[in-house]
């Protein structure tokens, strides 16, 4: 799929961390990656290869050790970047409604507009009946839905999602994948989506990049040719199985290498 314009450009990005034992972990890179305007990019790679680190650098939450990331921002009134974290990142002292409303409040949207958007997103993510409860009363899957609703409600220019469905049961995961597909197809935005699931990457992405074992580099970059609008029915397409096989053959040796590298040194 062709994407007009480039939204994110990472050039020679690396990141190292000094651990508590004072050794240095070279976590990421060098990574060169361009992400198009309104492109849905999925990132897969072995556990610990630096995927979350890359997302945090794109989000501006973490500085690269070297290299640079440029994110084109339109400059209109929208929030430039929102991120959905693996561990939800929602506030336990705020109700579900207040959590989802937070970004809208920070961006100065008027109360009536905020209420309308929050009600809409609570409904879409099946949270309407839980609007006034606190996160401690929710299951892990529901907390993650709050986090997703909060990010989508602010309609950012760039949406970064770090394994957002990992904590969900298999059925709910499929429901939310379909919902995200429908939302994105109706209103395209630049999305960078980290997942461990090759099926999820092929279902959702325009493009899938595979990262190597730590320090994570891009070792494969494939275009996903399925027409949109898509539905989960594409899982039964023989091409789906073929692409999954190609991704897995790139990834397999990296997963083994990362595993053999042993315990995470953090
Ligand atoms: N703040 C930190 N201090 C020290 N080491 C860190 C820090 N953050 C990440 N690391 C290390 O950097 C490496 C990459 O971590 P990162 O969380 O980016 O990997 P990941 O690919 O997202 O992993 P997973 O798929 O398991 O979530 C790991 O070895 C991790 O221990």
Percent range for β-strand residues: 15-25%
Order of helices and strands: EEEHEEHHHEHEHEEH
Number of strands: 9
The oligomeric state of the chains shown is single chain
Give the number of helices.
7
Parts with pLDDT < 50 across at least 5 consecutive residues: none
Rg over CA atoms? 19 Å
Strands of the largest sheet, in order across it? 5-6-7-3-8-9
State the helicity in percent bands: 25-40%
Structural class: alpha/beta
Name the average pLDDT.
Answer: 89
Organism: Nonomuraea harbinensis
Keywords: ATP-binding, Nucleotide-binding, Transport
Protein name: ABC transporter ATP-binding protein
GO molecular function: ATP binding
Can you walk me through this structure?
The chain is an alpha/beta fold and 266 residues long. Helices cover 36% and strands 23% of the residues. The chain has helices spanning 51-59, 96-106, 111-124, 140-153, 170-186, 198-204, 238-260, and strands at residues 6-18, 24-36, 40-44, 66-71, 81-84, 158-162, 190-194, 207-211, 218-223. The strands form two sheets. Strands 5-6-7-3-8-9 form a six-stranded mixed beta sheet, sandwiched between helices. It is globular and about 50 Å long. The model has no long low-confidence stretch (mean pLDDT 89). Bound molecules: adenosine-5'-triphosphate.
């Amino acid at each position: 799929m062709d994407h007009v314009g480039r939204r994110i450009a990472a050039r020679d990005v690396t990141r190292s961390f000094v651990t508590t034992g004072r050794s240095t972990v070279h976590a990421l890179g060098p990574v060169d990656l361009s992400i198009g305007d309104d492109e849905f990019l999925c990132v897969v790679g072995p556990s610990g290869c630096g995927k979350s680190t890359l997302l945090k650098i794109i989000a501006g939450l973490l500085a690269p050790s070297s290299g640079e990331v440029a994110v084109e921002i339109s400059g209109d009134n929208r929030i430039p970047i929102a991120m959905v974290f693996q561990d939800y990142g929602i506030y336990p002292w705020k109700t579900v409604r207040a959590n989802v409303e937070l970004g809208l409040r920070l961006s100065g949207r008027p109360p009536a507009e905020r209420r309308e958007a929050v009600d809409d997103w609570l409904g879409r993510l099946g949270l309407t009946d839980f609007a006034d409860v606190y996160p401690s009363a929710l299951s892990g899957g529901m907390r993650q839905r709050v986090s997703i609703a909060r990010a989508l409600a602010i309609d950012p220019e760039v949406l970064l999602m770090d394994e957002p469905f990992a904590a969900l049961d298999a059925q709910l995961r499929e429901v939310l994948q379909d919902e995200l597909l429908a939302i994105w197809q109706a209103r395209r935005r630049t999305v960078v989506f980290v997942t461990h699931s090759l099926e999820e990457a092929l279902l959702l992405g325009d493009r899938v990049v595979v990262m190597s074992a730590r320090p994570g580099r891009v070792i494969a970059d494939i275009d996903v040719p399925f027409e949109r609008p898509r539905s989960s029915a594409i899982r039964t397409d023989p091409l789906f199985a073929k692409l999954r096989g190609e991704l897995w053959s790139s990834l397999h040796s990296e997963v083994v290498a990362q595993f053999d590298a042993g315990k995470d040194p953090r």
